[in-house]
Amino acid sequence: MVSDSSAPPTMSVGAGAPQTLGGSRVVTRWSLRTGSPCYLDREAHLLHDQRVDVLYAPLQGVALVIAEEAADWLRKLRQSPGFPLPAERSAVATALARLGLLRPEPLLPRVPSSRTDGPFCPTYVTLFLTGRCNLRCGYCYSFGGDQPTTMPAAIAAGAVDLVLRNAQAASDRRAVVHFHGGGEPTQALGRMREIVELGQARARAAAVDLRFTMGTNGVMSDDAIAWVIRSVASATVSADGDAITQNRNRPLAGGGASFGLLVHVLERFDRAGFNYSLRMTVAGDDAPRLPALVKALLRVSRTKRIKVEPLFPFGRSSTSSQTPPDPDVFVQGFCEAAAIAKQDGRELTYSGCRPEVVTDRFCAAAGHSMCVTCAGEVSACYEVTNPDDIRADRFFFGKWNECEHLFHFDEERLGWLRNQTVDRFAHCSDCLAKWHCAGDCPAKTNLPQYRLASRPQHRTWRCPINRELTRRAVLARAVTGLDIRAPVHNETLG
């Protein structure tokens, strides 16, 4: 608590070393004097609920519980930068200056450090192995099963060879090959086996640590289950809750129920101690039942990690009756479900709320990701898999050359992708989640038809979800004294 008494201020601070995304920065411990101008760090935010006021500075990793009088003054200061320091606020001003949050002059703009102009040298590749799928999910972004093609062996081998060469030159000599949709990867199990055997042999020869991971719909043969357990390091399994919801949202290709088949796979994974997580999509009608749906998954799975995502209306859902959830309903349901999961020793996450992460980009799609389609096109995003996708002209930046047996990359388009950092997004400039969600998922923000017309400052309707969940998480951690992000320590300043 920051006090305004005449005695030296005392505050309980969760603070890591002050930093920005532009690399190391020297923080001057300014001694502000009565009457001197004050500027509150523009990346600091004042949060309030019924119990407490919190000053939150994500780049410093600081969340301070602030006395009500001090919070009122800081709000006035936010509205009128450079306002002279009143004598009765000198103690709290000095304490905040020592943290680098209050200054006698405006802070220079931050410059992100993760942007790179070097060569594109991925050591992680995602293979859209096949368009074949044994489910017909009503919201599938890639229309899985509609185009039953499989990646040629030469393209897959070329992608594996590329990441192995890059890993040889990297300091940790590690590489990852991830199998994903299009469709369900195990529908091309023979090709998967070939790729793994080839990759393992070439990785040994190159002295590279190569791991295979996958995303799966969780419906596969017993032979595929056994092979995945033996050959794949980890998997993300899509599952939507109880039998009614799973069977409605994720039916078999012929229209049958998928829930029992999913549970069979999860039981086999659990018995083998296989490393997997669950990924749940929440449609509008299901959002009020989110806590009950999470309970259903906890009963049929031992996984410690469940990722929950609101349905985004693209792909097959754009032609069906399924709609995204109301942001307020999703937030309330998520918070209740997260509490249930925590009581059971599990963790519930959502991609737009990650206060433990400080970054200028949402994901590797901003110029660091390589996803290869069945035809050999290279996409930056695993949600943009088809050249007919309206986002392909931005996310497709390479192509397999069959004659040369090499991938060629479009450096201009790659440069555009690398510049997709949150400091460039005007919609995000004053958002408290700015350095956490980092502008949100680019595959979704590049579909402007899903912005909220009533809230033009929001990039999409996910923004209210991101902001409110982040706000709640920061307030909860500040009040309980939990770390905002590691490494963090507590200290008392006087």
Furnish the topology, listing elements before pairings:
Blueprint: E1 11-15, E2 39-40, E3 45-48, E4 53-57, E5 62-66, H1 68-79, H2 90-98, E6 102-103, E7 124-128, H3 153-169, E8 174-180, H4 189-206, E9 209-216, H5 222-231, E10 234-238, H6 243-249, H7 259-272, E11 276-282, H8 290-300, E12 305-310, H9 327-343, E13 347-349, E14 371-372, E15 377-379, H10 392-395, E16 396-401, E17 406-409, H11 411-418, H12 434-437, H13 442-445, H14 462-480, E18 489-493
Parallel strand pairs: 7-8, 7-14, 8-9, 9-10, 10-11, 11-12, 12-13
Antiparallel strand pairs: 1-18, 2-6, 3-4, 4-5, 14-15, 15-16, 16-17
Helix pairs in contact: 3-4, 5-7, 8-9, 9-14
CATH topology of the largest domain, by name, is TIM Barrel
Global geometry? globular
Helical content stands at 25-40%
The average pLDDT value, as a whole number, equals 86
Termini Cα gap: 12 Å
CATH architecture of the largest domain: Alpha-Beta Barrel
Domains counted in the coordinates: how many?
A: 2
| Portion in strands | 15-25%
Radius of gyration based on Cα positions: 25 Å
Structural class: alpha/beta
Biggest pleated sheet: 11 strands, mixed
So what's the oligomer here? single chain
Q: Class of the largest domain in CATH?
A: Alpha Beta
Specify the CATH homologous superfamily of the largest domain. Answer: Aldolase class I
